[in-house]
Amino acid sequence: MRANDKRNFVEHLSWDEVSARIAKGAAAVLPIGAGAKEHGFHLPMNTDRIQGEELAARFAERFAGTLDVLIWPPVTYGYYPAFAAYAGSCGLSAKTFEATIEEIVTSLIRCGCKAVFVLDTGISTIAPVDDALKRADHNKVHHFKIYDGPRYKAAAMRVTQQKHGSHADELETSVMLVLAPDVVRMERAEASPPIARAAPGPLTPSDKTSPNYSRSGSFGDPTLATREKGEILLAAMMDDIAEQASDFLNGAAETKKQSERTS
Asked: How far apart are CA 202 and CA 234, in angstroms?
């Protein structure tokens, strides 16, 4: 965890401290990041959780002085059907996960948070989260999809050398070399086999005839990862998130003004 971050994580605060900061206009961040999902031989199973908390901390740091940010504990069980064949990987059904997110976000809105930012480190989680948030107050909630921003996509195109990838690959491993280098074991990194065609469906560690076969659980080539690539990707990702947050907050403020004018 980054230095001096404890003051932004509600798990380290008392409830009255949280209440006082919400009353002064604090926003909430809810990270979504698996605590038990395979990430190849070279990354730990809590890789997504690490990313969620670290990105949330950087978000709070980015807005320090202009927006108070409170970070809730990450949702570490989600909808991750692609990884079920790998030992230890645990997840929820889409329906259960969706209901979980809806209830947590509704609670944060009820607390009176200025805004709720759901920071989503997954891909299969995106649709259930979107569905959950449709039933929440859309004027107060925004969904960060960390790989969807235009700057990140452009940066990924610039630095990528692998022929294919989407999980524990060159890109994700590069980002982890910046966020948590002490947990990355590059000597164990193993590329997944070349594929003739991409196919939807779960990864498999045993069916060598499948286009989704990966002995290690990586999908792509993490051996190509570098810290330098990670710095570029992370900077682009944070710029995307910051712009989305600013646009959302400005839009919410304008909506509030219009509502006050007509009331």
From this structure: 27
90-97: list long-range contacts, CB under 8 Å, 24+ apart: 90/36, 90/37, 91/34, 91/37, 94/127, 94/128, 97/125, 97/128
Query: How would you write 176-234 as a 3-class SS string?
Result: HHHHCHHHCCHHHCCCCCCCCCCCCCCCECCCCCCCCECCCCCECCHHHCCHHHHHHHH
Taking the model in full, what pTM does it have?
0.93
Q: What is the pLDDT of residues 49-108, one digit of tens each?
A: 999 999 999 999 999 999 999 999 999 999 999 999 999 999 999 999 999 999 999 999
pLDDT digits (tens, 9 = 90+) for 144-186: 999 999 999 999 999 999 999 999 999 999 999 999 999 999 9
- Which H helix or E strand runs over 71? strand 69-71
DSSP assignment of 130-189 equals: HHHHTTS-TTTEEEEETT-SHHHHHHHHHH--SSS-SBSSHHHHHHHHHH-GGG--GGG-
Three-state SS at 249: helix
- Read off the pLDDT of each residue in 229-244 and give the average, rounded to a whole number: 98
Q: Are 27 and 248 in contact (CB under 8 A)?
A: no
Determine whether 205 is exposed, middle or buried from the number of CB atoms within 10 Å of its CB (0-12, 13-18, 19+): middle
First vs last C-alpha separation in the chain: 45
Write down the residue that tokens 């409830």 correspond to.
15
Taking the C-alpha atoms of residue 178 and residue 71, their distance in angstroms, rounded to an integer, is 21
Asked if residues 221 and 165 have their Cβ atoms less than 8 Å apart, the reply is yes
- Nearest Cα to Cα of residue 75 among 123, 118, 14, 114: 118
Q: For residue 127, what are the contacts with CB-CB under 8 A and spacing of at least 6? A: 94
Predicted pLDDT at 3: 43
